[in-house]
Design brief:
Rossmann fold, 2 domains, six-stranded parallel beta sheet
């Protein structure tokens, strides 16, 4: 019998209290399981980053980081399918077992190159880089700033327009396999009620990466796009509840959001666990998705994993145009905008025929993002079925 182990390498322990971040990895793990594969999640953390419940530095075994990873893996039935490296110590599956599993694994998917362990990376039959922040890694490499793309057998990206004429993401001489992110539909029931009469989102104002200068253009962050739509609440008359991670020192932007009618929520209070994140989405009228400027200017076709969860929950998505209309039908359930005026009109369209758009949203998730479809196609492209 052929080995049936797929390894996913990513970061959960580092981001305690980020419920949405967990789903990025869990959808792959559960999705591959549903296709009959065994799965293993590999995580790593610098011991100096481990914190206890009070936020104080502590040993990894006493940390909230370890507790968080343990709890979310248990929640999804993955309690025996993970390993965390913290310095010279390993938690969960022991390192010797991880090495044995990796040696026989047909596939290791390294999300954004997070795993940097050369011994483990050398073992699987196929090492695959998964790009979920299209534009950043490619421009770093093309500019000589950093190379997180070296040393893989295959390359995946959710920038589905890479290589197209109007997409400015450099290919870097690599053969990119494009794929949407998957959603495990069984985990996202259609929500019939409407407790929160608001457009919502969960997002970071800036995120982990800085703007990039590339070939005479600046490719910025979400903050640089969001400011363009600051008048949207007053212009549309709609309520917008945004669970926005923004540093308190950004006082001018915080004042700008408040003055223009944005109802800002604390992300960890409404989406601090996977369940809370899911319920926040299900309790929303629809999503407003404002993208990072990198995604908008490159026309890479990036589409948010969060937006896919809204669609799966029967919640329409009003999304800033990143070129995704080349790959998915836009107009019912999923609407795009490039200007404030288009966003206002999109909000009105959703409001006028809400039931139609809600049903269409779920159909889009079923047809285009169902993990069974997305991951089966992905395995075919990687020559694993």
């Amino acid at each position: 019998m052929k080995p049936r182990m797929i390894i996913i390498a990513g970061s959960i322990a580092q981001r305690v209290g980020y419920g949405g971040h967990v789903w990025v990895f869990v959808q792959y793990l559960l999705g591959f399981q549903r296709l009959g594969w065994d799965v293993l999640f590999l995580d790593a953390i610098d011991p100096s980053l481990c914190r206890d419940a009070r936020g104080a530095t502590c040993a990894p075994e006493e940390s909230e980081n370890l507790r968080w990873l343990e709890s979310v893996m248990e929640q999804f039935g993955l309690g025996t399918s993970w390993s965390l490296t913290a310095g010279s110590t390993t938690f969960g599956i022991p390192r010797a077992t991880v090495l044995d599993l990796a040696r026989n694994a047909p596939l290791l998917i390294n999300v954004m190159g997070f795993l940097a362990d050369p011994e483990i990376l050398a073992l699987p039959k196929q090492r695959t880089f998964l790009d979920i922040d299209p534009g950043f890694g490619q421009m770093w490499r093309a500019s000589g700033l950093a190379d997180i793309l070296a040393g893989y057998d295959s390359y995946l990206t959710i920038g589905e327009n890479i290589g197209q004429t109007d997409c400015t993401i450099p290919r870097c001489g690599l053969d990119w396999i494009t794929t949407p992110q998957p959603v495990v539909l069984e985990e996202w029931r259609i929500s019939e009620g409407l407790p929160r009469d608001a457009f919502t989102t969960v997002a970071s104002w800036r995120g982990p990466f800085g703007p990039i200068e590339f070939e005479g253009q600046t490719y910025g962050l979400r903050v640089h796009e969001f400011r363009k739509f600051i008048d949207l609440p007053k212009s549309s008359g709609e309520r917008f509840d945004i669970a926005l991670e923004i540093d308190p020192i950004e006082t001018s932007d915080l004042q700008l959001l408040a003055i223009h009618g944005w109802n800002r929520l604390e992300p960890r209070s409404v989406a601090g666990t996977p369940d809370a994140y899911r319920e926040f989405i299900r309790a929303s009228k629809a999503e407003l998705m404002v993208a990072k400027q990198m995604y908008v200017k490159t026309r890479g076709g990036w589409f948010s994993d969060r937006s896919i969860c809204y669609l799966a929950s029967g919640r329409p998505v009003l999304a800033q145009d990143t070129g995704f209309g080349c790959n998915y039908p836009v107009g019912c359930g999923l609407l795009s905008f490039a200007t404030v005026e288009e966003a206002v009109e999109g909000a009105k369209v959703i409001y006028r025929e809400y039931g139609v758009h809600a049903r269409a949203a779920r159909r889009l998730a079923e047809e285009y993002f169902d993990s069974n479809i997305v991951l089966s196609r992905l395995l075919e492209k990687l020559s694993l079925v």
